[in-house]
Design a protein that fits this description.
mainly alpha, DNA polymerase, domain 1, 5 helices, about 70% helix, globular
């Protein structure tokens, strides 16, 4: 359990400090709201999503580009929905 707590804290830190402030705000807020209740598989998916380039991730959230198939899936869908809700 302590490893899970450390992992969640580490992922939150990464989500808030990506480099592009807009992505920091969406991913950081998403992490704060959702990571504590995620399964290990969902945490893996979120961690993989953190590898996406900021500029691409932002276009996916805005809906101006289709997501890269390498990052597409339920986790990205959740982040996009969360980001669009935050922007509305």
């Amino acid at each position: 359990m302590a490893d899970d707590v450390s992992r969640v804290q580490r992922l939150k830190y990464r989500a808030w400090r990506r480099g592009m402030r807009e992505c920091d705000l969406v991913l950081g807020a998403f992490a704060d709201a959702r990571l504590a209740t995620m399964s290990a598989t969902e945490l893996d998916d979120f961690e993989a999503l953190l590898e996406a380039p900021d500029d691409k991730l932002w276009t996916w959230i805005l809906g101006t580009e289709a997501p890269d198939p390498a990052f597409a899936g339920p986790m990205l869908d959740q982040v996009i929905a969360f980001g669009r809700e935050a922007l509305s």
